[in-house]
Design a protein that fits this description.
- The chain is mainly β and about 700 residues long.
- The chain folds into 3 domains: about 140 residues, 7 Propeller (Methylamine Dehydrogenase, Chain H), CATH 2.130.10; about 150 residues, Regulator of chromosome condensation 1/beta-lactamase-inhibitor protein II (Methylamine Dehydrogenase, Chain H), CATH 2.130.10; about 350 residues, Regulator of chromosome condensation 1/beta-lactamase-inhibitor protein II (Methylamine Dehydrogenase, Chain H, 7 Propeller), CATH 2.130.10.
- The protein is built from no helices and 56 strands.
- Strands 1-2-3-4 form a 4-stranded antiparallel sheet, with no helix packed on it. Strands 5-6-7-8 form a 4-stranded antiparallel sheet, with no helix packed on it.
- The chain starts with a strand and ends in a 6-residue tail after the last strand.
């Protein structure tokens, strides 16, 4: 974890890096220069072990010892010239790195051969210039370097027990007087600190705000030991403040208190360590320019201080101060994310590991289930609903199955789509009448169906196109009715106005609207009774979109049928087909999701691919274009997906970690992080967790 100048980055357990806050010159690494108030993942970076944030650039250390940097490169601080890069570029080092640091204009690495190398604005042998590629720091007597710390304008290295050298762009490496056994180093803007044997801390340099922690505001040219501070396991120096973590998990900060950066509930300077409020299980800390962050024992992050540009990673506001720790947003325990295939236009719901359900996006009809009818840019918990085992999002309504087999719905009800017998919209869940053995539920445009015990199917809501699976019911049903002739189904999915069921034999039967060929029976006609999809007898997964349908075959190949506009069928053209056609170049799929005008799939490796309409970045390929793709394109930085949902104009996926990421059109809060759009997957934030 590294807190910098208005931004913060953290290495996730997966090896990916998430950054948030100030994004000047692309230093968040997400391919843009737009700031983020919630964490977003760095593109094309999957095996990181450390991260360092400078003023306008960031660097990461990979597990193989290579280093990649991104952001402004004007001083050579990216290690590859003077150009700026919004995504990581590899630094050409003379040897593999074991540690890194980043400052305002410089970056440095501790190499595996115990040498230190820096690039950017560096003074070497009495001459200050921009150094690209990296240059070895001339440590006196070529002494081996054991520790390296980089601050905004200077760096320090531990050479041997008690011997530390520091340098900047104006001075060559200069020894710091004996410190005793130095365990760790940290460098602020104009002060530095060392963690010593026994958990003591000594600091030196400027002290106008009390950042040396010795109870005074007197500068110190030699190290002073902070009185009464022992058992320190981590220390970090910011611009004008310092923070430490003690062995008991408590954190203390001292120095400049403006913007609440000390985390003690106040905004005044402190010349002696003061305890951070409400933090008793810290394991690491990082002090930035005007904010601080800590890692808790459970792996979660908290931050405090100046939240300008979203540096605290917690709120939709980009201008906020917190005088005590606030949690960095995350949503890390999701098993299912649903947006109703093509039907869920403006909201998304997620099933959490503990059986709770969270929804976000447009809430005007109560479809978020939190008792309100307002749009939510971040997830809100559905009221009075627990022990859920499945969730679905239709057009302006949502439904969930509980573990006891009962089904509950909420949102718009003008077509009886809530199944409670009425037409009154509900902002909290109501029980569907006549269903107590549901296994799964799916929602379409204005109707819903459940898969029940013994593989039976029941539906309710509008039936103007035969989507309830029975003839002569144009007005639909206010409560559930069982479909005749459907038994032994193992999977169910709904499009806008059609539905399909998969059977254990691998065959698929569909019913409802068929004028675009989405029923797969070779005709362009509505079918009020289920018809069999032509030539498909080995389906293992199924998904119905607005006007097309797709299935994964036993071989891992994917077939699609229906409306072909924008190349959503994936067979290399934009022609429609009333029978299944094979998706090009996809032979190892394990899941598929059909949206409105695009489709997504997960490969056996966990890699996600999408095809079809690419507008607003819904394919997740890392760019926004008006061009469509009729063949699968790789979703950027998503190689561990376990489920995926192609929606109307956006997409979402659940990662192995249980985190939800979304991309595409973010209007009305669809993406769950406040972005207006996004061409790459970014995490949905979860306030308060």
């Amino acid at each position: 974890m590294s807190a910098g100048a208005g931004s913060t980055c953290a290495v996730l357990a997966s090896g990916r890096v998430a950054c948030w806050g100030n994004n000047f010159f692309g230093k968040l690494g997400d391919g843009t220069n737009s700031g983020r108030a919630v964490p977003g993942e760095v593109l094309d970076l999957e095996d990181s072990v450390a991260v360092a944030t400078g003023e306008f650039h960031t660097c990461a250390l990979r597990a193989d010892g290579t280093v990649a940097c991104w952001g402004i490169g004007v001083y050579g601080s990216l290690g590859h010239g003077s150009s700026t890069s919004y995504t990581p570029v590899e630094v050409e080092l003379p040897a593999k790195a074991v540690a890194i640091g980043a400052g305002d204009k410089v970056s440095c690495a501790l190499l595996e051969d115990a040498r230190a190398a820096c690039w950017g604005r560096v003074r070497i042998d009495g001459v200050t210039s921009n150094h690209v590629p990296p240059t070895l720091v001339p440590i006196p007597d070529d002494a081996p370097v054991a520790r390296l710390a980089v601050g905004p304008v200077r760096a320090c290295a531990k050479i041997e027990p008690g011997q530390v050298y520091c340098w900047d762009e104006w001075n060559d490496p200069t020894p710091v007087p004996e410190l005793g056994e130095v365990l760790d180093l940290t460098v602020g803007r104009n002060h530095a600190c060392a963690r010593l044997e026994g958990g003591r801390v000594a600091c030196w340099g400027e002290n106008a705000a009390g950042q040396l922690g010795d109870g005074t505001t007197d500068d110190a040219s030699t190290p002073v030991v902070i009185p009464g501070l022992e058992d320190v396991v981590a220390v970090s120096a910011g611009d004008e403040h310092t923070c430490v973590v003690q062995a008991d998990g408590t954190a203390h900060c001292f120095g400049r208190g403006a913007e609440g950066r000390l985390g003690n509930g106040r905004f005044e300077d402190r010349a002696s360590p003061d305890e951070v409020e409400g933090l008793s299980d810290a394991v690491a800390v990082s002090a930035g320019s005007a904010h601080s962050c800590a890692i808790r024992a459970n792996g979660s992050l908290v931050c405090w201080g100046d939240g300008g540009y979203g540096a605290l990673g917690n709120l939709p506001s980009l201008d906020y101060e917190a005088e005590a720790p606030v949690p960095v947003s995350s949503l890390l325990d999701v098993s299912v994310a649903a947006c109703g295939g093509g039907a869920g236009l403006d909201h998304t719901c997620a099933l959490r590991g503990d059986g709770r359900v969270a929804c976000w996006g447009r809430g005007s009809d109560g479809q978020l289930g939190n008792g309100e009818t307002t749009t939510q840019l971040a997830p809100v918990e559905v009221a009075d609903l627990d022990e859920a085992v499945d969730v679905t999002a239709g057009q302006s309504f949502s439904c969930a199955v509980r573990g006891d087999g009962r089904v509950f719905c909420w949102g718009a009800a003008s077509a009886h789509q809530l199944g409670d017998g009425g037409t009154e919209a509900r902002s909290t869940p109501v029980q569907v009448v006549g269903v107590d053995d549901a296994i799964a539920v799916r929602a379409g445009k204005a109707f819903a169906c459940v898969l029940r015990a013994q593989g039976r199917v029941s539906c309710w809501g509008r039936s103007n196109r035969g989507q309830l699976g029975e003839d002569h019911t144009p007005d639909g049903h206010a409560t559930s009715v069982e479909l005749a002739g459907i038994e032994g189904a193992v999977e169910l999915d709904l499009g806008d106005e059609h539905a399909c069921a998969r059977f254990e034999s691998g065959r698929v039967r569909c019913w409802g609207r068929g004028t675009e060929g989405q029923l797969g029976d070779g005709w362009l006609e509505d079918r009020p009774l289920p018809v069999e999809v032509v030539g498909l007898d080995d389906a293992v997964a199924l998904s119905a979109g607005v006007a097309h349908t797709c299935a994964v075959r036993e071989s891992g190949k994917v077939v699609c049928w229906g409306h072909g506009e924008f190349g959503r069928l994936g067979h290399g053209t934009d022609t429609s087909s009333a029978v299944p056609v094979e998706v090009v170049g996809l032979d190892d799929a394990v899941a598929v999701s059909a949206g409105a005008q695009h489709t997504c799939a997960i490969r056996a490796s966990g890699r996600a691919v999408c095809w079809g309409n690419a507008q607003t970045g819904r394919l997740g390929a890392g760019f926004v274009t008006e061009e469509a793709s009729s063949v699968p394109m790789r979703v950027a930085a998503l190689d561990d997906a376990v489920s995926i949902a192609a929606c109307a104009v956006h997409s979402c996926a659940v990662r192995e970690s249980g985190a939800v990421v979304c991309w595409g059109n973010g209007r009305n809060g669809r993406l769950g992080d406040g972005r207006p759009y996004g061409s790459t997957p970014q995490p949905v934030r979860w306030p308060g967790h």
